[in-house]
Amino acid sequence: MSVKRLAQAIPPPNRESEVRDWRGVESELGRRLPDDYKEITERYGPGVFGDFLHIYQPDSPWPQLDLAQQVEDELTALKELAAAGEEIPYKLDRPAEIVTFGRDENGDSLFWHCRDMESPNNWTVLVKDARAPDWFPFGGGLSDFLTAVLAGRTRFPVFPADFPPIRPGFATYVI
Protein backbone atom coordinates (compact mmCIF):
# COMPACT_ATOMS: atom_id res chain seq x y z
CA MET A 1 0.00 0.00 0.00
CA SER A 2 1.47 3.31 -0.98
CA VAL A 3 -0.22 6.61 -0.40
CA LYS A 4 3.01 8.17 -1.66
CA ARG A 5 2.46 6.65 -5.14
CA LEU A 6 -1.15 7.83 -5.10
CA ALA A 7 -0.07 11.36 -4.11
CA GLN A 8 2.49 11.41 -6.95
CA ALA A 9 -0.18 10.44 -9.47
CA ILE A 10 -3.06 12.44 -7.94
CA PRO A 11 -1.70 15.32 -5.86
CA PRO A 12 -3.69 16.03 -2.71
CA PRO A 13 -5.26 19.47 -2.37
CA ASN A 14 -3.11 22.26 -1.04
CA ARG A 15 -4.55 22.29 2.44
CA GLU A 16 -3.54 21.45 5.96
CA SER A 17 -3.94 17.77 6.73
CA GLU A 18 -6.64 16.92 9.23
CA VAL A 19 -5.67 15.13 12.40
CA ARG A 20 -8.40 12.79 13.55
CA ASP A 21 -9.15 10.94 16.75
CA TRP A 22 -8.70 7.52 15.14
CA ARG A 23 -9.19 5.66 18.41
CA GLY A 24 -12.63 7.26 18.73
CA VAL A 25 -13.52 6.49 15.10
CA GLU A 26 -12.35 2.90 15.41
CA SER A 27 -14.14 2.49 18.74
CA GLU A 28 -17.39 3.68 17.15
CA LEU A 29 -16.96 1.19 14.29
CA GLY A 30 -15.82 -1.63 16.55
CA ARG A 31 -12.71 -2.33 14.48
CA ARG A 32 -9.36 -0.91 13.46
CA LEU A 33 -9.01 0.71 10.04
CA PRO A 34 -6.25 0.44 7.43
CA ASP A 35 -3.44 2.97 7.77
CA ASP A 36 -3.68 4.03 4.12
CA TYR A 37 -7.37 4.94 4.58
CA LYS A 38 -6.43 7.10 7.57
CA GLU A 39 -3.66 8.83 5.64
CA ILE A 40 -5.81 9.36 2.52
CA THR A 41 -8.70 10.90 4.45
CA GLU A 42 -6.34 13.13 6.43
CA ARG A 43 -4.34 14.29 3.39
CA TYR A 44 -7.12 14.62 0.83
CA GLY A 45 -10.15 15.34 2.99
CA PRO A 46 -13.69 15.10 1.64
CA GLY A 47 -13.91 15.04 -2.14
CA VAL A 48 -14.03 12.93 -5.28
CA PHE A 49 -11.30 11.07 -7.18
CA GLY A 50 -11.48 11.18 -10.97
CA ASP A 51 -14.93 12.82 -10.81
CA PHE A 52 -16.26 9.35 -9.95
CA LEU A 53 -14.99 7.74 -6.72
CA HIS A 54 -16.06 9.01 -3.29
CA ILE A 55 -14.33 7.88 -0.10
CA TYR A 56 -16.42 8.10 3.07
CA GLN A 57 -15.06 10.35 5.79
CA PRO A 58 -15.15 9.92 9.56
CA ASP A 59 -17.50 12.40 11.23
CA SER A 60 -18.73 13.89 7.96
CA PRO A 61 -21.49 16.51 8.29
CA TRP A 62 -23.17 14.81 5.31
CA PRO A 63 -24.78 11.47 6.30
CA GLN A 64 -24.40 10.13 2.74
CA LEU A 65 -20.61 10.53 3.08
CA ASP A 66 -20.18 9.70 6.77
CA LEU A 67 -18.20 6.49 7.27
CA ALA A 68 -20.04 5.20 10.36
CA GLN A 69 -23.47 6.00 8.92
CA GLN A 70 -22.69 4.32 5.61
CA VAL A 71 -21.16 1.25 7.26
CA GLU A 72 -24.43 0.77 9.15
CA ASP A 73 -26.66 1.58 6.16
CA GLU A 74 -24.80 -0.76 3.77
CA LEU A 75 -24.82 -3.62 6.25
CA THR A 76 -28.57 -3.18 6.78
CA ALA A 77 -29.19 -3.07 3.02
CA LEU A 78 -27.11 -6.21 2.41
CA LYS A 79 -28.96 -8.08 5.17
CA GLU A 80 -32.26 -7.08 3.56
CA LEU A 81 -31.03 -8.34 0.17
CA ALA A 82 -29.95 -11.62 1.78
CA ALA A 83 -33.35 -11.98 3.48
CA ALA A 84 -34.99 -11.44 0.08
CA GLY A 85 -32.97 -14.30 -1.40
CA GLU A 86 -29.88 -12.64 -2.89
CA GLU A 87 -26.74 -14.61 -2.18
CA ILE A 88 -24.21 -12.48 -0.33
CA PRO A 89 -20.89 -14.35 -0.38
CA TYR A 90 -19.58 -12.65 2.76
CA LYS A 91 -20.39 -12.94 6.46
CA LEU A 92 -22.67 -10.07 7.55
CA ASP A 93 -23.06 -10.84 11.25
CA ARG A 94 -20.94 -8.74 13.56
CA PRO A 95 -18.12 -8.54 13.07
CA ALA A 96 -19.00 -8.39 9.39
CA GLU A 97 -16.46 -9.74 6.92
CA ILE A 98 -16.94 -6.67 4.71
CA VAL A 99 -17.01 -2.95 5.51
CA THR A 100 -17.95 -0.21 3.09
CA PHE A 101 -15.61 2.75 2.66
CA GLY A 102 -16.91 4.49 -0.46
CA ARG A 103 -19.05 4.50 -3.56
CA ASP A 104 -18.95 5.59 -7.16
CA GLU A 105 -21.15 8.03 -9.06
CA ASN A 106 -23.31 5.15 -10.30
CA GLY A 107 -24.14 3.97 -6.79
CA ASP A 108 -21.80 0.97 -6.82
CA SER A 109 -20.28 0.34 -3.39
CA LEU A 110 -16.65 -0.03 -2.40
CA PHE A 111 -15.83 -2.41 0.45
CA TRP A 112 -12.91 -3.78 2.35
CA HIS A 113 -12.78 -7.56 2.56
CA CYS A 114 -11.76 -7.99 6.20
CA ARG A 115 -10.33 -11.49 6.16
CA ASP A 116 -8.27 -10.88 9.30
CA MET A 117 -9.71 -8.37 11.75
CA GLU A 118 -6.34 -7.96 13.45
CA SER A 119 -4.55 -6.98 10.22
CA PRO A 120 -6.53 -4.16 8.56
CA ASN A 121 -3.52 -3.23 6.42
CA ASN A 122 -3.98 -6.58 4.65
CA TRP A 123 -7.64 -5.99 3.78
CA THR A 124 -8.40 -6.04 0.07
CA VAL A 125 -10.98 -4.07 -1.91
CA LEU A 126 -14.28 -5.29 -3.34
CA VAL A 127 -16.55 -3.44 -5.77
CA LYS A 128 -20.26 -4.31 -5.45
CA ASP A 129 -22.51 -3.75 -8.45
CA ALA A 130 -25.51 -1.66 -7.33
CA ARG A 131 -27.82 -3.20 -9.92
CA ALA A 132 -26.80 -6.85 -9.79
CA PRO A 133 -25.55 -9.39 -7.24
CA ASP A 134 -22.01 -9.18 -8.63
CA TRP A 135 -18.89 -8.57 -6.54
CA PHE A 136 -15.53 -7.72 -8.12
CA PRO A 137 -12.35 -8.25 -6.07
CA PHE A 138 -9.16 -6.22 -6.21
CA GLY A 139 -6.05 -7.82 -4.75
CA GLY A 140 -4.81 -4.83 -2.77
CA GLY A 141 -5.75 -2.11 -0.34
CA LEU A 142 -7.33 1.30 -0.85
CA SER A 143 -4.28 3.29 -1.97
CA ASP A 144 -3.25 0.59 -4.46
CA PHE A 145 -6.86 0.37 -5.70
CA LEU A 146 -7.12 4.12 -6.28
CA THR A 147 -3.70 4.29 -7.94
CA ALA A 148 -4.41 1.33 -10.27
CA VAL A 149 -7.95 2.36 -11.18
CA LEU A 150 -7.18 6.05 -11.74
CA ALA A 151 -4.16 5.13 -13.90
CA GLY A 152 -6.37 2.86 -16.01
CA ARG A 153 -4.32 -0.24 -15.14
CA THR A 154 -7.29 -1.95 -13.51
CA ARG A 155 -10.82 -1.88 -14.89
CA PHE A 156 -14.09 -3.12 -13.47
CA PRO A 157 -17.11 -3.99 -15.62
CA VAL A 158 -19.37 -1.76 -13.50
CA PHE A 159 -17.28 1.35 -14.19
CA PRO A 160 -18.13 3.34 -17.33
CA ALA A 161 -16.00 2.99 -20.45
CA ASP A 162 -14.87 6.63 -20.22
CA PHE A 163 -13.51 6.18 -16.69
CA PRO A 164 -10.92 7.11 -15.68
CA PRO A 165 -10.66 10.49 -17.33
CA ILE A 166 -7.53 11.30 -19.32
CA ARG A 167 -6.20 13.43 -16.46
CA PRO A 168 -7.80 12.15 -13.27
CA GLY A 169 -7.54 14.35 -10.24
CA PHE A 170 -9.07 15.02 -6.88
CA ALA A 171 -11.74 17.66 -6.29
CA THR A 172 -12.58 18.83 -2.78
CA TYR A 173 -16.27 19.13 -1.98
CA VAL A 174 -17.44 22.71 -1.75
CA ILE A 175 -19.25 23.36 1.50
Automatic annotation (TrEMBL):
One protein family per Pfam: SMI1_KNR4
Transmembrane segments: none
Knr4/Smi1-like domain boundaries: 21-146
Region (Disordered), start-end ranges: 1-21
Name of this chain's protein: Knr4/Smi1-like domain-containing protein
